[in-house]
Every structure is written in structure tokens, then in C-alpha cells.
Amino acid sequence: MTTTQQRTALVIGATGGIGGEAASALLRHGWTVRALTRRAQPAPKTAKGAGIDWIKGDAMVAADVAGAARGVQLIVHAANPPGYRNWGKLVLPMLDSTIAAAKAEGARILLPGTVYNFGVETFPRIDETAPQAPATRKGRIRVEMERRLKAASAEGAPVLIVRAGDFFGPHAGNTWFGQAVIKPGAALKSVTEPSTRGVAHAWAYLPDLAETMARLLDQADRLSAFEVFHFGGHHLAWGEMAASVRRVTDQPRLPVMGFPWWLVMALSPVVPLFREMAEMRYLWREPLVLDDRKLRTFLGEVPHTPLDAAVAASLRGLGCLDRPRHEEATAFTPLEG
Prior knowledge:
This protein is α/β, with parallel strands linked by helices. It is 36% helix and 17% strand. The chain is built from twelve helices and 14 strands. The longest helix has 19 residues, at 87-105. It is globular and about 55 Å long.
């Protein structure tokens, strides 16, 4: 759908992986994009921040969010405390700030969703109508987030939620891929498979996910007040991600390591990050597929970068592969402040 009306979006969390990609996709689709940041503008200043109006403020301060959101038609709520730090104390207050601003402006809220909402009883194939009865604290917080958003959608702030699997991408360092599967910043000496052998896992390549979100918003007139879609992404059997890394790096004998879950479990009582990781271990022990038939029916064609191309772009972005001088940009150039 094309429109002559100027569309303005506020992205909260634009310095993160999915927030940055969403900002980039919206710019490509003709949106004016603002971004809330605790810094005056992102550092280091690079071309990746081009086109964004950076506004200094804090997502925890409702007045800051309200001021940044004045006159917008969309708020992308991609705020997420890195490394699960203070999740329980920060996630819901930040969302409440977004909801209040969206209701004041009559703006739509876009939330990048996760599979945390679901317990193993809904596995292995989950569609948008699956019951949400998570056994984890973070899962219950996610359910509460969506409950609050649904209430907001009945009070003048329509909502779009796109749930996806584990993120990976050129500028997604704070992810399982960027912190566990590979070691960023240098040529790889090994690759790690966090899943239990024989278990498939759902992965979402962020440039594809962000482009999908932008295409959904291009057809906002077809969206209901509270709309949820599942993004299928890459459904990979154990060993497929490692095999792709081997092909991309031209290292057919690159060692494939198992993730040291025993260490995470042993130290989880004393290491906060390990405690948070241990809580989500079930997602790596059970097969999971996000049923995206609703999304495919709605869009007709869903962006999908071939696995090796997505892995190559991710490794280059994370400093594990040299970028040839003649190499052209990928289809969905990521943006992150």
C-alpha cells in the first residue's frame, strides 16, 4: 500500500539489534523515524544512524517517551535490558510508558514478540492461538506485556505483535548467536551448538524480520486493533547452523562444540546471567516451530534470506569475516545506533 501522508515512527531501543533493524526498514518504507536514547545521539556516529532523529531521553521516564512520541503514528517498542539484567524491574514499567504515549497520540504499538509466552505443552508447532501458560518468570512477564497491550488496543492504541525465534544478524551481538554460537571480533576457532542433539530450533534473521514488520505496516488498513503474527524464519535441525558457519568460513573441519550447560546450571545460584539463561534452557531441549501460515496468507511472500547468506552477513557484521571490497550490500541493510 502506498500513501502520500507522512508517517512518523518512534523507535524505543534503536541502539539494539531488532530496534535498529526496524528503524532501517521503516526508513526504507518512507517513514520519518525518531529514536529515543539516553545519549544525545549514538556513539560512535556512523552511517548506520543516518536519517534518524535522535532524541535524548529514558524509556523508564514516561514524560520522556510522551515528548518523543508527540505526533507519531507508530511506536516500536524494542526496549530490552541487555543480558536479562533487571528484567523483572524494567520491562513492564518501560512498556507502560510506551502504552501511555501511544494512547495519548492514538498511535499503533509494534512489539517484537518472543516464544517465552509458551510452555512445552504447546510444542513443537505453535500458532498465534496457542494457549499461554509459561513455567518461567520471563514467560509470565511476556504474557503480562501482551495482556496490557491488548487492553491498550481497546483504548485507542492499536497493537501489532510479531513473534519470532532467536535473533541473529549483522548487528545483533547481544544474542545467543553473537555470544554463544560464535565468538565475535576475530576469525572463528570453533562454533557452538546450544541445542540438545537431535532437537530443532527456531532462528530469526533480523533484516528479514524487520522487513516483514515494515510490510505489515504498509497494509495497516487490513490489520485489526490487536494483531499477532508468527514469523517462521529459519527452522534448523541440530548441526545445521554449525554446518552453515563451516561453509561460510570455508572451514569444513571447524570444531563444533556443545554448549556447557552443566557449568551454567552449576553456577546459576551465584551468577545472575547464568540463572537467567538456565531458566530458558527448555527452549534448547525441546523442538519448536513457529507456524507462520497466517503471516504468509496475509503478505503472500515473506522475506527470507538463504541461510548461508544470512550467516555470512552476520559473521561479517560481528567481525568474524573480512568484507571483500567489491561485495555489495545485502538486500536489507541493517541500521543500529
